[in-house]
Design goal:
Layout lengths: L5 H16 L5 H6 E7 L9 H14 L4 E10 L4 E11 L13 E13 L2 E9 L1 H7 L4
Parallel strand pairs: 1-5
Antiparallel strand pairs: 2-3, 3-4, 4-5
Length: 140
Amino acid sequence: MTKTSAKELRQIARRWIEEGWSKGNVRIVDELHAPDFVDRDPSGREPTNEGFRKGIKELYAAFPDFNAKVEELVVEIETGKVAILWSATGTHKGGFMNIPPTNKKIHFKGIEIITIKNGKITERWGEWDGIDILQQLGVI
């Protein structure tokens, strides 16, 4: 196993956010994820590459103009972990969490912790404030 440099870890993490989350490019999964990638997302989707692709597609179906921006990256080179603090905007144009479209523009933040080994993302933990989103959509 080769160790990935801090610079490479940052580049992979930024590209993952910019291509996958800011552009909805599901091909990024094939390019940057390891075949045995595990998604620790609490959504209940299958914790695999296919489940992750499905999550991106669902997000863009609900918020076609979704745009995420990296606010901060923290790298732990010894373990290959990168923490990504991000912010995002999007207009609710499709169903989301069983909520019909509201056409409301939302702003929210989240954090991702990814593990990168041999230049590939092997694991992801992700969290965002669902209560804040529901409040912005006027549901609660």
